[in-house]
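Worked problem 6 (solution included).
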Amino acid sequence: MKKFIVAIVLLSGLTIFAQKEPFKIEYDYARFALDDSSGYLELYYSFYEPDFEVTGKNSDKEIKGSLSVLIKNASTEEILVNKEYQFTSGLHDSNGVEGKSLIGNLGFQLPFGKYNFTLIGRDVTVSGRADTIYFPLDMNITTKERFTLSDIQLASSIYSSEKTNSVFYKNSYEVVPNPSMIFGGSYPLIYFYTEIYNLTKSVQSELLMVEHNLYNSKNNLVYKKKKFVSRKNNNIVEAGGINISKMPTDAYTLNIQVTDTLMKYSAITSKKVYVINPNIIDTTATLTSEGEMLSSEFLSMGEEELNEAFEMARYVATGKETDQWGKFKDADGKRQFLYNFWKGRNLIPGVSQVSASKEYYEKARYANEKFGNIHRKGWKTDRGRVYMLYGEPSEIDRFPNQVDVKPYEIWYYNSIEGGVQFIFADLTGFSDYMLIHSTMRGELRDDNWQRRIRTN
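Solution. The predicted structure is:
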């Protein structure tokens, strides 16, 4: 792996399946071998252009953002990295925002050990518009004894290149990451990149067997490729692509396995990948009674009801799914899309898509009953959206008749991110409570929200 400590580039030519609201970062990472005491981490991320406030006029339109990276040793709390990367991207289309994504790549050399990461992405033009992500990482790429593999990097494209100065260049390839890990539609190929180490140590076979296996969510093998590679080089690259244009919407697992057939020893690396193909029907699936219930739910709907069902689902839909929905002009296509939309989801771990969709739409009906007003249905209100996304609050403080203050409510969710708040206020006097502040990552934040509810 090429050594460089930090590198960053931003592209505006790749559409990633992201949603406009709330402000979000898509991220992924891959760990590679470096030396006997440290590894090399590549961090991939993307921002969705329409999430940003556009500044300037005509040909001078642009968006401005930043990404902060904090890396701490999990045991000692020592800070290894604490940096902010700022960027500006010009917009050249007539509408100001093209609906594309800004793709970035950062690299860090880290000693073997366990770390805690904090990523904060910001729209620097709008105060409080940010997303914060926390995740742990175990940096341990062992290469001393037998052969092993790096993590799999998922990519939107891989091609041979001599552009050694490109941030995406490594080992004669340019590998453009796909931090969303979502494929389908205009991205019909799952591109992948991994590295295989120590092929000359404790290996008896002159040729090693390399397998690419793709499993669906039911652990059924849906793609398999096998080849043999020479072990004359100690380290080699394994890169390729899998055509998933005819595969149904589902969560898949990609396995890359290397085997010494004489020693009967194998090393394997795996990666979760998501496919969204709403037009592809899974002909191998046998509908359970729950699946028939789901189909019947949408089959009984007229086109107006189908449209509203998707409008409700926009809160959990990706930008790509929203674009795909707009292409359907008939009710049959919309019914199939909604079925696949919920089939490809696990909103509640361990719960079928039927139960998840049923609970989601029940929340929408509850929102209509409790939060609707003369202007909007309840599911269209801020309180309705928050309720549908996060469920019943742990506690609600209501202040309907305070002196010199407009009516407002504070919703507490004690089990989310260690405890978060949502503050809604009736700024117009028509019982239309708007979200004015939240401590939830990705939601609107305004630490001076009290000034907005003063009446004098």
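Discussion: The chain has a mean pLDDT of 84.
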